[in-house]
Amino acid sequence: MINFMNVIQIMEQKKTEFTPNDQLIYQKISKDPGKIVQMTTSALSDACGVSQPALTRFVKGLGYTRYQDFRADLIAWLAEQRTQQMPDCDHLEYFSVMNQLLREAEKILTDSYMRDLVCYINQFSRVFTTGVSKSFQPASLLETLMIKTGRFFHAVPNDNISELSDSMNENDLLIVFSVSAKHSLLKSLSGSAGKIMLVTVTSSHPYQELIDRQVLLPYIPPTPEESAVSPVLFDMFVEILCRYLTH
Questions:
Q1: CA 13 to chain centroid
Q2: Helix (H) or strand (E) holding 58
Q3: pLDDT at 149 over 70
Q4: 8 A C-beta contact, residue 20 and residue 121
Q5: Of residues 6, 229, 213, the one with CA closest to residue 103
């Protein structure tokens, strides 16, 4: 990964070599890098008016293997800028927290871990997704990113979970995104014939026996509920998961 102090400098150095698509991406990032790091690859490519492959070519032209690596270094650069501007600030700034979370997530979501997870998901003919509150966004994103593959991935609103629980069979998987894993939604899944995979940042919760598989992502103390970046981290996990599911 490139040193985060150079990420902006590298774009400046290479901008004379940029294609028209590269220029569109460069201008969007330069205008508001803080907003960019909160966007998914699909959202950023749409905002720039380019394709996702064009975005991939852009970051590879800067020396990065993946867009996630570029975004991680951009977040780190932003955190450094905020630290320099507020040297006496004692609390963790948003970008500093995000940078730390990305580093911790990278240790968890290794290539072997993701391949094993995809093997598990591929056992099921139908995959449903849902999420509690803000965590419904990654559930919806997973459905959107998988549409073009022709595979069955369907986001289900919380209000319909009880009906879904009753109708699922052993060939169905429900992926639940929940920061705290304490919502009553999980309790309503008791007795379902389908399998449940929980994506959370909470290791201790009362629904361990209901869960067939768990993805535990990092968070910054004191509590997962107070970690404002958790839903964003869920989106990043979904993007990485989809890359493995489609390749």
A1: 30
A2: helix 52-61
A3: yes
A4: no
A5: 229
Can you point out the beta strands (E) in the chain? 126-131, 153-155, 172-177, 195-200, 213-216
Domain with CATH 1.10.10.10 in the chain: 7-85
- Whether the CB-CB separation of 109 and 237 falls below 8 Å is answered with yes
Over the stretch 92-104, which tens digit does the pLDDT of each residue have? Answer: 566 667 777 787 8
Q: Which residues contact 187 (CB under 8 A, 6 or more apart)?
A: 207, 210
State the Cα–Cα distance between residues 94 and 35, nearest whole angstrom.
12
The order of strands in the sheet holding 172-177 is 153-155, 126-131, 172-177, 195-200, 213-216
CATH architecture label of 95-246:
3-Layer(aba) Sandwich (3.40)
Q: How do residues 196-240 score in pLDDT, each as one tens digit?
A: 999 988 877 888 888 999 999 887 654 555 555 566 788 889 999
Determine the CATH number of domain 7-85: 1.10.10.10
Percentage of residues in the chain with pLDDT exceeding 70? 85
Using left for φ > 0, alpha for ψ between -120 and 50, and beta otherwise, residue 181 falls in: left
Q: How many residues does the chain have?
A: 247
In the chain, list all ranges with CATH 3.40.50.10490.
95-246
> Which of 103, 129, 142 is closest to 239 using CA atoms?
142
